[in-house]
Amino acid sequence: MTSPDDRRRLLRIARDAIVAQVTGTAPPAVELSDDLARLAGAFVTVLRRGELRGCIGHIESDEPLGRVVARCARGACSADPRFPPVAVTELPDLDVELSVLGAFDQVASPDDVEPGRHGLLVELGRRRGLLLPQVASARHWNSTTFLAQTCVKAGLPPDAWRAGATVWRFEAEVFSDGASGSDEAGSPQ
């Protein structure tokens, strides 16, 4: 569990990285102490007035969390292929949500998935799709719909989870610096 102080530090790292990326300035150096030095995967979601504006993540636990958050924040505001890069005029309207990923466990059936608690990763061949736990909650999906939609995200048929795709579940600590997501103190989701 990430402490409230480290959550604030991670949110500041993400916000500073976004501002630097959008304005073309250098972000402050990331101090990798305490929890920010642990190896972890994370996603940075950028919301503008409550609407998705970008989301980029890193699923492997092979880099320090502080660096992952900074890099993914830069990508979320400039490299999400679904959206144009964030403009300077949008900065005051942005909220940042972080999802720090836990361990991945293989799923055998929909009974292994608890929407709102688990996120999902589906893999088949070179195709891979991931949906964060908060996606299923926001859309009120049951476990079967969540599995199907994760397959679609991977570019697979909705029933690929029944026909050879490997499915992994994970939990994430989700917290935000604004009203669009969880409160700053946040609770694990």
Polypeptide structure, described:
The chain has 189 residues and is of the alpha+beta class. The protein folds into two domains: 4-101 and 172-188, Hypothetical protein ph0010, domain 1 (Glycoprotein, Type 4 Pilin, 2-Layer Sandwich); 105-170, 2-Layer Sandwich (Dna Ligase, domain 1), CATH 3.30.1490. It is 28% helix and 25% strand. The chain has four helices and nine strands; from the N terminus they run αββαββββααβββ. The chain has helices at 4-23, 65-78, 133-139, 143-153; strands at 42-48, 51-58, 94-101, 105-106, 119-124, 127-131, 166-170, 172-176, 187-188. The strands form two sheets. The chain has a five-stranded antiparallel β-sheet with strand order 2-1-3-8-9. Strands 4-7-5-6 form a four-stranded antiparallel β-sheet. A hairpin with a 2-residue loop joins strand 1 (42-48) and strand 2 (51-58). Helix 1 (4-23) runs parallel beside helix 2. The chain is globular and about 50 Å long.
